[in-house]
Amino acid sequence: MPGRQEVRHHLRLANGFMATAVIADDSNEFEIRNALSRSYYALFHACHGWLAMKNVPQSRRKHRQPLFAEIQSKRGKEFGDRLEGFWFLRKKADYDDPELFRPGSFQGDLERFRLSAREDLGRVEKEFDSYASEIESFLESR
Amino acid sequence: METILRDRLMAAGLVTAMNEEKSQFLDLSDAFFAEIVLNDGSKLALTEQIVRNVKEELKEKGVQLDSVVRAVWSVKDIQFIGPARGVSGGLRAALEFEAVLESGSRDRTVSVEVTLAALNKLREKFGLSERVGSPSWVREGDVHEQTLKKLVGEFLDFQLSSGGTSYWDPILFPRRELTEPAVSYLVPDSKDFKQLRAAIDDLLGDYAVEYSLRDLASRNVHIRDFERVLPDLSSHLGGAYKPGEPFAVSALTLFQALGDLERKRLRQYYSRKVEEIPEELKQKYPRIFSN
């Protein structure tokens, strides 16, 4: 069964990754993509830590889909839906080459891309906080 | 499994009471999971019975079904009661609020206790440092009752937003505690504030404090002069920057972006950290600590 050490480990990684997910005023396209990707992995570790806190064994959350299903069963459908959305955001940030430049998207406008990415990052951070605060409360309580 | 459950609920006239957006049917690694969410709390007992019956039938066929049956609740009213009391009538280190929740035609009264630690956190966040640590709440000069009620409302909304097996059943558990971590989540500090606070911790932390004091002394900067020390925080900020290039963000820029309240809180935080510097270091650099 998961222990406090595993919970602490995931929280440490989660906090560390989230601290690097920064979109500065002069961030270029790849720094923005990095920030979005890292924020998703911060959230991913927060989810692992939260499930470990709930004594869900690693075997039941070894891959993304089972992990998402466990979160959905334990936090509700809306949390699962949001996780899927953030995963998709990460996929776009890591892989979609024409995303920034496709007609109808940002059409090469880096400033607009930055503003949109900041809003997305804010949503991931808010979701992250909902897991991290509960984990921190759990670790402080004993 | 989903079809069986829906058919039974339809036969009982309960499908229309189901919240389709929040209800879910999952195939997990070792069991099925069904979450039936109702818009009307008065239908809970009947729905629970139907789900229990289906579970038993499936169990006889060797199929495991885990389930949650819950209702969607919303906050109808919140009242401030006063200092919380224990079962024996003795005072507790908390303030008590009573809230009425509603789900369709069903109401439920619940109690929320705001702990003293949570109240102190709020006092700190609203720049009421002189009230931090006081065991009693007062109407004048403390966190406003309306602010507390608003926070209790947001706390209840957050508690009620959890679904799945983590859902809160206000019927079975009508008491909640609003603790300090909940305040940190509901009233978050801005990112800029957190960065500056971390920079202060770094500047005056065990590892760097003597270097920082020596540096301030060499430039004749009084340590309690926050405005003159503020630029030094830039070199203690985190975030991405390329070696050899000027910092993308300066501490002054971040500080100017803060609201009045966070600026006040940051100055108070800095003052506290200065007072916590070990006595032997204060005596080693007396000029920068003199009044």
How many domains make up the coordinates of chain B?
3
Q: Order of strands side by side in the largest beta sheet of chain B?
A: 4-5-6-7
Largest chain-chain contact?
A: A-B, 31 and 30 residues
Helix content of chain A: over 70%
Could you say which overall geometry of chain B the principal axes of the C-alpha atoms support? Answer: elongated
The rounded Rg of chain A comes to 16 Å
β-strand number of chain B = 7
> What is the CATH class designation of chain A?
Mainly Alpha
- Total count of domains of chain A: 1
Shape of chain A: elongated
Under CATH, the topology of chain A is which?
Answer: Four Helix Bundle (Hemerythrin (Met), subunit A)
Q: Considering DSSP H and I runs of 4 or more, what fraction of the residues of chain B is helical?
A: 40-55%
> Biggest β-sheet of chain B: count, sense, barrel?
4 strands, mixed
Q: What is the count of β-strands of chain A? A: 0
Strand content of chain A: under 5%
Helix count from the secondary structure assignment of chain A: 5
Q: What is the makeup of the main sheet of chain A?
A: none
Task: For this entry, give a set of tags.
heterodimer, A: 142 residues, mainly alpha, Four Helix Bundle (Hemerythrin (Met), subunit A), 5 helices, 0% strand, B: 291 residues, alpha/beta, Alpha-Beta Plaits, 3 domains, 4-stranded mixed sheet, 3-stranded mixed sheet, 12 helices, 20% strand, elongated
